[in-house]
Amino acid sequence: MSYGKFSRASDVRSYRQHFAETWSLFIRENFESAAEAAVLFRVDPSTAENWWTGSNAPSGWVVGLALTMPDLRESAAALFGGHDAA
Length: 86
Fold this sequence. Notes:
Blueprint: H1 9-30, H2 34-41, H3 45-53, H4 60-68, H5 70-80
């Protein structure tokens, strides 16, 4: 089984960093602060702060939750689907 363009460890790390940066953009565009995101997603403030700065990305359940929330769905789908958010 081939993993395609992400077969090398450096490619995976690069994508992980890209995803953290993309999530950071999403959080900063949709929330006034990291603290506000922490409350909505019910995570520790330090976790949300790491998202805000782009130093960490969320687990899949957080992205899935964002995609189910009416106020975030359009922005999340546009950003994570590879299209610019409106």
